[in-house]
């Protein structure tokens, strides 16, 4: 009997230890409660200014543990949020001083104001606010808070224009990067996309004559030595670049005067993309100007499964993963270099989050389907949904992708 008692005590101890281990392991719960607090001055007059802020506080969603969530602010002019705008900044704490400039810009967008000339003064209005919470990389973690209202909000014209930089080189006659030459250099600008203002990703398509081509970039017209130059090296000596299969990608230096030199350019159009976030330049022979064209996004293993949200960092990331409707016919195309064992993706028509209803894939269910290529080509059906396409054993390489959203078909072609 004594032995049985000892064994029973040991068993209880083991179970207790296991229970302790299980209790200390974080367990994710799909959140159901998330509250945005109404500010004490919600009924007072708010005049938005470029330097001002609006203080908002909220509770942490009930994830089941103290999760490191990300919070984004959404605003609307109507309580039902039939149309809304998510602000660019995100927050990691439950207490935020939201930039008034971002709120004012969102109001202008919701009013349908596209340029400064369209803006008209209006009286203070009711502004409805809610918060979107999510844990990056965890599907099902997204939750939207309750809606609060600020009764009297007066905005200002906060419409942003697309930023640009200049291409300076022998193709433009080495016209100096001076303010006095702004008109002469207007045709040698690379612009941010109209849909990605503030991204610091600039692109342009230029017709360059055959022969030696030399150029670098300037972010401002402050002269040759004004510190605004961007090149391949600090020294003022050109660096030869070779296009492989009509394309090249190089690392930039800022400030830097080392120009890009293509000794034997065949002549014709060249698309140039300068990403000032990671200081890279991409050159593409025969490129097409995509500014103003509709686009969708590739989301999946090649793009790192980054959440397809409109927060500034994510939107900038997905600038490199766009497919464009070049013919305005609902067919989106692009060619991507997809690493080995990373051929799994779907598409998103907008950056509205994992569960924002903008996904377009192989099936409705959030499960990948395996595909095969015949003679380097896959053609199949597509639908509004979260099913990805997966090609097992992919060895890596370039893939030309066509997405026909009118006929719900996709084609993947190995290049």
Give the helices and strands, then pairings.
Elements (H helix, E strand, L loop, with lengths): L1 H23 L20 E3 L5 E5 L12 E7 L8 E7 L3 E5 H11 L14 E10 L8 E2 L3 E7 L9 E6 L19 E4 L8 E8 L2 E8 L10 E2 L8 E2 L6 E5 L8 E6 L2 E8 L4 E6 L9 E6 L11 H6 L4 E3 L6 E8 L5 E5 L10 E3 L7 E2 L6 E5 L1 E2 L4 E2 L6 E8 L4 E6 L1
Parallel strand pairs: 1-8, 14-16, 24-27
Antiparallel strand pairs: 2-5, 3-4, 3-6, 6-7, 6-8, 9-10, 9-12, 10-11, 11-17, 12-13, 12-16, 15-18, 17-18, 19-20, 19-22, 21-28, 22-23, 22-27, 23-26, 25-29, 28-29
Q: Can you put this structure into words, describing what you see?
A:
With 415 residues, the protein is mainly β. The protein has 3 domains: 45-154, Sandwich (Immunoglobulin-like); 164-285, Immunoglobulin-like (Sandwich); 295-414, Immunoglobulin-like, CATH 2.60.40. The chain has 3 helices and 29 strands. The protein has helices spanning 2-24, 100-110, 312-317; strands at residues 45-47, 53-57, 70-76, 85-91, 95-99, 125-134, 143-144, 148-154, 164-169, 189-192, 201-208, 211-218, 229-230, 239-240, 247-251, 260-265, 268-275, 280-285, 295-300, 322-324, 331-338, 344-348, 359-361, 369-370, 377-381, 383-384, 389-390, 397-404, 409-414. The strands form 5 sheets. Strands 9, 10, 11, 12, 13, 14, 15, 16, 17 and 18 form a 10-stranded mixed sheet that branches. Strands 19, 20, 22, 23, 24, 26 and 27 form a 7-stranded mixed sheet that branches. A hairpin with a 4-residue loop joins strand 28 and strand 29. The protein is globular. It starts with a helix and ends with a strand.
């Amino acid at each position: 009997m004594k032995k049985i008692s000892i064994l029973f005590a040991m068993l209880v101890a083991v179970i207790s230890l296991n229970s302790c281990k299980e209790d200390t392991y974080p367990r994710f719960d799909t959140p159901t409660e998330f509250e945005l607090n109404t500010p004490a001055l919600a009924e007072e007059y708010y005049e938005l200014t470029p330097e001002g802020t609006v203080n908002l506080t909220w509770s942490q969603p009930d994830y089941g543990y103290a999760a490191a969530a990300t919070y984004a602010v959404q605003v609307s002019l109507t309580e039902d949020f039939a149309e809304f705008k998510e602000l660019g900044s995100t927050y990691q704490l439950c207490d935020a001083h939201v930039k008034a400039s971002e709120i004012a810009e969102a109001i202008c967008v919701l009013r349908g104001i596209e340029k400064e000339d369209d803006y008209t003064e209006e009286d203070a209005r009711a502004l409805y606010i809610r918060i979107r919470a999510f844990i990056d990389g965890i599907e099902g973690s997204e939750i939207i808070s309750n809606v609060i209202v600020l009764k009297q909000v007066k905005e200002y014209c906060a419409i942003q224009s697309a930023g640009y930089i200049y291409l300076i080189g022998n193709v433009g006659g080495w016209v100096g990067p001076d303010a006095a030459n702004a008109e002469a250099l207007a045709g040698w600008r690379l612009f941010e996309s109209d849909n990605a203002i503030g991204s610091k990703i600039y692109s342009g398509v230029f017709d360059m004559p055959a022969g030696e081509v030399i150029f670098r970039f300037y972010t401002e017209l402050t002269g040759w030595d004004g510190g605004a130059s961007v090149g391949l090296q600090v020294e003022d000596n050109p660096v030869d670049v070779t296009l492989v299969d009509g394309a090249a990608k190089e690392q930039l230096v800022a400030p830097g005067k080392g120009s890009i030199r293509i000794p034997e350019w065949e002549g014709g159009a060249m698309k140039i993309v300068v990403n000032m976030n990671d200081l890279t330049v991409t050159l593409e022979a025969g490129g097409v100007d995509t500014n103003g064209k509709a686009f969708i996004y590739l989301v999946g293993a090649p793009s790192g499964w980054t959440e397809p949200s409109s927060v500034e960092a994510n939107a900038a990331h997905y600038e490199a993963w766009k497919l464009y409707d070049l013919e305005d016919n609902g067919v989106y195309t692009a060619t991507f270099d997809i690493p080995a064992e990373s051929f799994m993706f779907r598409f998103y028509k907008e950056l509205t989050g994992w569960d924002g209803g903008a996904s377009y894939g192989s099936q409705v269910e959030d499960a990948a389907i395996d595909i095969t290529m015949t003679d380097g080509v896959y053609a199949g059906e597509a639908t509004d949904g979260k099913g990805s396409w997966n090609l097992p054993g992919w060895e890596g390489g370039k893939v030309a992708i066509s997405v026909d959203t009118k006929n719900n078909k996709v084609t993947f072609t190995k290049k």
